[in-house]
Fold these 4 entries.
Entry 1:
Amino acid sequence: MKASTTLAVLAAAGAQAHYTFPGTKYNGVAQPQWDTVRITQNHYSNGPVTDVNSALMTCYERDPGVGAPNTLAVTAGSTVSFQVGSSVGHPGPLHFYMAKVPAGKTAKTFDGKGAVWFKIYQDGPSGLGTGSIKWPSDGKTEVSVQIPRCIANGEYLLRVEHIALHSAGSAGGAQLYLSCAQLSVTGGTGTLNTGQLVSFPGAYKATDPGILFQLYWPTPTSYTNPGPAPVRC
């Protein structure tokens, strides 16, 4: 099969594999959908954000300014999961960002705007250069991240983001699936250096090498995640 035909088939199949991140899971307990996660504009369609300059890049909210009904209490150093509806159906990197809620706001009322976000996790592919690239999140029905032990106590937004690269060979082709959970964190040491804070939109450009990316042909030999490096305790 010619490469162009292969890409067309893959793109058509990809349209049937969209997904959301509608709920959190903590200490083995799954929260109801859209209870601690802000309801997203794609909660019915499962469709992605494709414009990295869109205001939807913040939390993809259906109702900006409303917030989720509840805030999840977690301990620094513990693991928080997002349920996936229904599974991660496209290849690409998984990222997690956090933003500390400023004084005078709560996790429910904070809009997440401005240079407030720091990255706490990113992954990358295996099999580069082989024509058989795999991503850790492929097919997952749940994705998880550890909250840094050295984080300051307080309320935060936790932003999950998966970038689907199956049609990212042209500008605007990458598909971003994301949502934001509301957290209240205790037990942190407060010693974390958050480093470079970024904004959404603003952190990415459509031409960033991790956004504009030929996944299938020519066979890629490297991948550069967009955005800042993850923070470390």
Note: The helical segments are 3-14.
Entry 2:
Amino acid sequence: MAPRKSKGDGEEKAKPLTQTSTRVTRSMDRQTRSATKPDGAKAAGSITKQVKLASPKRKKPATETGRGAKKAKKDEEKEEEAAEVEDPTKPKIVIEHCKQCNAFKTRAIQVKEGLEGAVPGVTVTLNPEKPRRGCFEIREEGGQTFISLLNAMKRPFAPMKALDMEEVIEDIIKKIK
């Protein structure tokens, strides 16, 4: 929308608004330095402006939902795992599942919960190392392999979905005991 026309007299002229900026440029800094003499006295007839400098940004403290808290939580979990006394009589099961699809993850969690509930003292770990692509494998650490579906299964992961997970859990429990 266009501004209103002023009356012909020119009596109602808008007053210019002066705004002070908190922004400090290099040229402004030079002006303030040249206005003051080396001994600290002001130069004759010079006017200096006091400019407030922007304060440096502060780091926010790590909160429970921030990255710092997640890192601290992972560190605590690693310490707890290291603190656990490794008993050679307790079976250790490793489940390696691909992260490509949630179908692998849900089956791995189902096996983990089933084994931990049925066998007292069993330690089940999911993906201790980076998993292979299209892999679903359940094995005893440093020993026997219970299920191994490799060869980079492609969608729709028919060999894995054909498994009855309850039967698989029962077979593993029998082999462990």
Note: The beta strands are 92-97, 123-126, 136-140, 145-149.
Entry 3:
Amino acid sequence: MSQVYSKSPKDCASKESFINTDNFKYKKLFCVFSTFFTSLISFILLIWLILHPSKPQFSLKEADIYLLNLSNSHLLNSSIQLTLFSKNPNQKVGIYYDQIQAYAAYKGQQITVDTSIPPFYQGHQESNLLTASLVGTGLPVAPSFAYEVGRDQTAGKLVLNVKVNGKLRWKVGTWVSGRYRFNVNCVAVMAFGPNIPPPLSARQGTLCSTSL
């Protein structure tokens, strides 16, 4: 003999009411968190749009080439000293420079290894002088390198590119942004000839281009 269990309408209504209440609580909690995160993102975006930080400014104050010599047909030894001027143009935004590296290039070829510059914080409208010694030992270069240098020596000038790249963060009050990669390109034009003794120098204070 089998037994048949029956549930009264009252029991079913009670269970359905419990499920509906539980679902309502989850939906309410989800709405609260969604509203909170949306408001937070909107607030951060509003601050960003109001302040809209300008890119940092760089200029090349001085560059001196002490050594630029091929040890054989394709290996280069180099030594370059440079001084950079860095400025934060923002009135309400500070800048953390977390990583900075510099190197020199000639005719599209890297002629020194990457050299690290110590990280630092730059306050509102603050300026800093950055110095670095760039060197290269036995760096491979294109077969045309010696020809290009000789042609520039005949022309009486040498064009050097100083490249700076790294990562920075913006600081607004106590809020600090994520990291942004930046790239700087500076062009130095130096007098160059057979009768000009080293170092070859550029001191014209060239303004550099900066991209984020």
Note: The chain has a mean pLDDT of 85.
Entry 4:
Amino acid sequence: MKTLLSSYYSMYGHVAKLAEEIKKGTDSVEGVEVKLWQVPETLPEEVLGKMGAAPKSDVPIIKPSDLTEADGFLFGFPTRFGMMAAQFKAFLDATGGLWGTQQLAGKPAGIFFSTASQGGGQETTALTAITQLVHHGMIFVPIGYTFGAGMFEMEQVKGGSPYGAGTYAGDGTRQPTDLELAQAFHQGKYFSGIAKKFEGTA
């Protein structure tokens, strides 16, 4: 059995919805299980309240040491000025001990994301996140164009890219569309198939 870990940060709930759909995709693949985790919040409740942040879910909070138990990773985060949110970066910054021993090297990793607008970082957020994977020796697994016709949709606004599933939050009221959720499901299923091909715990 392959154990995958989907770790995410979600302030307004958009990334959390993608994570839930990705889990459904991974669960559809025999011989693979996925555990959902959220990274610790770094902002005080007062600030979150002023920002209109959504209440936190009961998904458990991850610690860096939890990463060692997984055979692969799916990391999700919103963008801040074209890069991953500071909360997720702070979590990765705390993985120095794992980096020093290269305990995550050789393990597959994928990413998914949310931006406010079409020019808000659907590609730059992914590109800048890859550096984190590289230093740990992880193997980046993009979805490419395996989602098929959905990758070429032009009649409706759709987040995501060859790097991974994505959505647009707009002013916070827009929610992931059926097509965006379908792409997230596909990423979970596709990534699981790739992860099964890697040597290691089975």
Note: The chain has six helices and seven strands.
